[in-house]
């Protein structure tokens, strides 16, 4: 049986799971995501193993608000200011990190993909934790995203993951991803958020 934390559960259970390097399965606006503290090398490595994902590919992050993203080291730029006017929304921004800062979820790069999700309970959890979480799709690389825990139970149970909430997600398009270039706002992936 998969270990599921109810939304009204003891937050210390989630904190202990993260501290122990366990992966969380979190519901988002469209599918489940795999979550660890983006500052945790052990946690990020656990996600790469679980997804069988190529090292060097950054993991996107969800934050309760812009302040959490800035505290993580994301620098505000025009794309962030654009997103802030629309957040919470299925709108992800690839933004620069502060110079010289290393965030394991960025996989050695100098940018990080971040969004404030349009999922009230998830934002409340992030606020209570006091920091963002990764939110890469909960699946093995190359497979479709999972909308329910039944789709994920075998790999999550084998990895000792903690599922959050347990509800079925609606599926459909993932978030729209944008960045800022000298030519202006650039859409990297068209998704649920219409630009």
What would a concise description of this structure say?
The protein is of the alpha/beta class and 195 residues long. It is built from six helices and eleven strands.
Total number of helices: 6
User: From the helix content, strand content and strand pairing, which structural class follows?
Assistant: alpha/beta
**Care to count the β-strands?**
11
Can you tell me the CATH topology? DHBP synthase
- Which runs of at least 5 residues are low in confidence (pLDDT < 50)? none
Q: Supply the CATH architecture.
A: Alpha-Beta Complex
Q: Sketch the topology as an H/E string, one letter per element.
A: EHEEHEHHEEHEEHEEE
- N→C terminal distance: 42 Å
Determine the CATH superfamily: DHBP synthase
Strand order of the largest sheet: 7-4-6-5-10-11
Q: What proportion strand? A: 15-25%
Mean pLDDT: 94
The general outline is globular
Fraction of helical residues: 25-40%
CATH class group: Alpha Beta
- Structural Rg: 16 Å
Structural domains: how many: 1
């Amino acid at each position: 049986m998969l270990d599921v934390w109810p939304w009204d559960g003891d937050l210390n259970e989630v904190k202990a799971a993260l501290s122990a390097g366990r992966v969380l399965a979190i519901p988002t606006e469209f599918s489940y995501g795999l979550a660890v503290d983006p500052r945790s090398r052990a946690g990020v490595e656990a996600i790469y193993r679980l997804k069988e994902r190529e090292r060097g590919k950054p993991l996107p992050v969800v934050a309760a608000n812009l302040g959490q993203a800035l505290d993580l080291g994301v620098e505000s730029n025009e794309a962030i200011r654009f997103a802030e006017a629309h957040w919470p929304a299925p709108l992800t921004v690839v933004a620069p990190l502060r110079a010289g800062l290393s965030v394991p979820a960025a996989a050695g790069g100098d940018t990080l993909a971040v969004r404030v999700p349009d999922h009230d309970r998830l934002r409340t959890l992030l606020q209570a934790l006091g920091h963002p979480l990764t939110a890469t799709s909960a699946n093995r690389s190359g497979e479709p995203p999972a909308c329910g825990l039944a789709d994920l139970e075998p790999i999550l149970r084998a990895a000792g993951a903690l599922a959050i909430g347990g509800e079925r997600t609606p599926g459909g398009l993932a978030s729209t991803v944008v960045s800022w270039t000298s030519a202006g706002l650039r859409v990297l992936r068209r998704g649920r958020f219409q630009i």
